[in-house]
Amino acid sequence: MIPDNAIAPAGEPLDTGLFRSGLKINHLRLVLALDDHRRISAAADSLGISQPAASRMLAEIEAIVKAPICARVARGVELTSYGEALARRARTIFLELREAAREINELKSGSGGSVSIGSVTGPALNLAVPAIRQVSTAYPGIEINVQIDNSNVLTRELLAARHDFVVGRIPDDLNPRLFKLVEVGFEEVCLIVREGHPLMEKTSVSADDLPGYDWVFQPPGTLLRRAVEDSFLSAGVPLPSTVINTSSIILTLSIVRNTNAIAPVALDVARLVAGNGTQAGEIRILPTEFPIRLKPYGLITAEGRALPPSAKLLYDLILKQSRM
Fold it and tell me: Which residues belong to the signal peptide in this entry (predicted)?
């Protein structure tokens, strides 16, 4: 049975008894890696250690905590309630360490702070960029770090305390209670092809016209990909048989421009590149007669984690931009 002082109740700091008992930062890193990857081998790889070393560390953790941290399941391992409690506290610890390092660096450099955000592509163009421009103009000392990716990646980066906030959607496979979400808009999606693509000869393209071509998709399980696949299924047509998976918009545009492949992208992205006079401008928006619907996106923060002042400034500007 776990000691009363081993894991602190919600809202209180972690008791130092665990550290006096031998718990180390690397132990906490392993717990978080197990929570993220759900397999000991994958967790070990992410930490750059061998699987036997990870197993030994896991045994050490369980001896210190005096409770099982994870349990084996059909596809790997999952954290027990004790493991989940330790992982939750570990994320807070690493966040505080990151904030301490950031504050120290700011004091050393005399800069105005730093912000790290993640965004899906469409909102990055129409919300984040204008807000970043305002912040950079008014507060030139602030350093802003931006990661563009899909929501599956970004929300996990947020939980790992690598971002202050994210502009995107909460994936269905994550517990929504881990986040706070303020919905700010809808992202329109379109299909793009190269200039001169056979389907551009049609005034309107139906779902039946699409399966015979190669497709460039975001990785399996991403919200955009699922929305497109749902459109196929709703229309009663088979899913494409030849698919290239990539989260890179640059690679997507290159493949589409040089082949007859089709790709779904945010409409704002398509409008930015289509017909702009460069090689990327050889992209065209396919006229379709069926909608591709994504659920609204929003500003996402981690539950129980306050934004530092510089991040709150950018967050508020993006929120204001969304309401204009």
Answer: none
